[in-house]
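User: Can you predict the 3D structure for this chain?
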Amino acid sequence: GFTDHDALGNEEWNPWDADEKSELAASQQRYEANLKMIKHARSHLEQTSLRVQIWGKAAIGLYLWQHIFGGHLEPADVTAQWREGSQKAGKTYFSFLTGPSVVPGYFSVEAEHVVLVLNGREPPKVAYATQWLHYAQTLMETRKIQHVAVVLLGNEQCNNAWIQPYLKRNGGFVSLLFITYDYAFVNEEDIFQWPLGVATYRNFPVVEPSWSMIHDPRSYLCNFLGTVYKNSSREILIEIVKQDGLDKLCWIAAREQWQPQETKESFKNYQDALLQSDLTLCPVGINTECYRIYEACSYGSLPVIEDVMTPGDCGNSSMYHSAPLQLLKTMGAPFIFIKNWKELPAILEKEKKKSLQEKIQRRKKLLEWYRNFKAWMRQKFINTLENSFLPSDKG
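Assistant: Here is the predicted structure, written as structure tokens:
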């Protein structure tokens, strides 16, 4: 066996066993075919190098940079006023800036192409995001920058009408929009769905899979640590779990009030619950998509997702008809989707009968899928920027 440290320190180490090799080889082939295609498309741009500066003014910027790009930030201290990082990817040199000290007009704009990461979840955030957009617009008008893309933490009911006038297609200056949740305007041309990711605002870490995470037996069949809203399906979930005595097999900790700030202890509890459970229950909140889904993937705990549309304007776009969670479904997420928590006892009955070996295989598959998912999102993001920002050779 490996110690965790050896496993992590050795780049060559591969937790995927021989019986998974063929599946891995197939996915590797698909990945390489895709890379070839991308390289081919790029060959006529050999001389062009793109410099992109990302301004992280919302916590999802950290998911983009640290989790999807695997990038680092200096200083490492999460409370620092100013943090930055850079990396080269494809033909593009990316630099990333974040922190309270990154304020319009008080930092140097060092690239002609800018990605602005904003929070549009509620009116005060929208007001702040709008200030940044106006700043970017001024830089465009004075020709300090050439292109702007926006990564937006959208509103949970997909009420994002405020961003529309800023898009190029509507006479504005924003070339590309990457937006969370099942926004009906997603068209895969200039508006793309973006994953919500983990709760970086609570400093959820980048988790490296370890030997023990994959191979050790876990103490609980399932977990749910979270707020139980009045008259929500979460009340039904808690009732069902208690009724069948399943709360003895699962780690259930319900609270009545949502708490934005974790204590060190509550956060450690939550991470332990993910690490110690085979399944993570993901009941809908205000939106079906929640941080918990991605956080469970990070620890190899399979999400059991309540697959129902939440009230609001989220829904089917012209591109997809599989809302909610169309991005995850399109990418073949190996989750358990249910329509009603009454299905849970049967799922847990099955779970009791699974051997450790079966669970190990499933964890490998989940961790491998999540790693690939982040790699695809990174590649898609880079390709989309390069295709949009680099001069085409159409004449």
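Residues 1-12 have pLDDT under 50 and may be disordered. The chain has two domains: 50-180, 205-372.
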